[in-house]
Amino acid sequence: MHKSVLVTGASSGIGEATAVHLAHQGFKVFAAARRLEKLQDLAGLAHNRIHPVAMDVTDETSIANALDTVGEEGGALYGLVNNAGVSVLGPAERVPTKEWRRQFETNLFGLMNVTRAVLPQMREAGVGRIVNIGSVTGRIAAPFQGVYAASKHAVEGISDALRRELRPHGVKVSVIRPGFVNTPFGEQEQQALARYLDDEVYGDQVRIFKQWHARGHPSAPPPTIVAEAVLKALTAARPQSRYTVPEKMLGFLALRNTAPSALTDRIFERVTGLNAIQEKGNAS
Ligand SMILES: NC(=O)c1ccc[n+]([C@@H]2O[C@H](COP(=O)([O-])OP(=O)(O)OC[C@H]3O[C@@H](n4cnc5c(N)ncnc54)[C@H](OP(=O)(O)O)[C@@H]3O)[C@@H](O)[C@H]2O)c1
């Protein structure tokens, strides 16, 4: 009997790699996303253990329909991997409210929409795993990633609360915190940053940050690194509350937790090249 797992955002990048990896490891995988045609490409892989399901995580009717399909295909869900996400980048002052809402509708409310929909069956079974794909950005907010970072900080917070609420009900909750991973996400972020290159206030900073970002994504590890961490969270007898990948990012997080902000701010500026921008004198 193969355990069933629902992976959201499985039409690309980390979600796709996770769906394939879990299916190879013996899970029956329900691979969900809006672009059903992309998911169909996965259907023949990994011993036909991947089942495409159309789902928009921001639409509760779409989620209900998708879970009906999962039920019809015999998938009493053991695991949920909340991976679907978008990234809204730009100077926090400039990003329009509509874009802030789009960010949170997917990364936070979408995550909770799907979680709420699957929890009753997991609680009744007295067993289940929820794996939320957060980000290192859920602990450290880089400049021009503020909107995205806020959504991933929220994922950290809700995951802590869920883990504590659900432990007595047999449902375990983990967060995976990837650093840069080489997926189509990087190109979307580049396009988002490009909108602000001509900004009269922030344009120069965004240009430098964008160049640093462009160097980071293509040289980043492949999405399988995240898929392996998800597998651990789904199969460990006692899953960790957090898995940070690649592990070298742990040093960065330790610095964030222990060093004064003045120091980490200077490190950020050095690493990104933003130290080239002169700070304006404080007139007061
Ligand atoms: N790549 C990185 O460097 C990185 C680092 C840290 C964390 N992460 C996180 O990892 C997750 C996956 O990112 P990725 O790099 O794999 O990006 P990606 O290749 O752009 O994939 C994003 C996935 O999310 C799905 N999605 C977006 N909006 C959706 C919605 N409303 N309903 C359902 N599915 C939706 C997309 O599918 P459809 O468009 O077909 O719906 C797609 O499958 C995200 O949560 C991201 O924040 C990524």
Topology:
Elements (H helix, E strand, L loop, with lengths): L3 E5 L4 H12 L3 E6 L2 H5 L9 E5 L5 H13 L4 E6 L14 H29 L2 E6 L12 H21 L4 E8 L6 H10 L8 H14 L7 H12 L6 E4 L3 H10 L2 H12 L12
Parallel strand pairs: 1-2, 1-4, 2-3, 4-5, 5-6, 6-7
Helix pairs in contact: 1-8, 3-4, 4-5, 6-7
This protein binds NADP nicotinamide-adenine-dinucleotide phosphate.
List of distinct ligands in this structure: NADP nicotinamide-adenine-dinucleotide phosphate
Enumerate how many helices there are, as a single number.
10
The CATH class assignment is Alpha Beta
Please state the overall shape, judged from the principal axes of the Cα atoms. Answer: globular
H/E element sequence: EHEHEHEHEHEHHHEHH
Q: How is the biggest beta sheet arranged?
A: 7 strands, parallel
Report the CATH architecture. 3-Layer(aba) Sandwich
Question: Order of strands side by side in the largest beta sheet?
Answer: 3-2-1-4-5-6-7
- The CATH homology group name: NAD(P)-binding Rossmann-like Domain
Low-confidence stretches: none
Overall pLDDT score: 95
Strand content: 5-15%
CATH topology: Rossmann fold
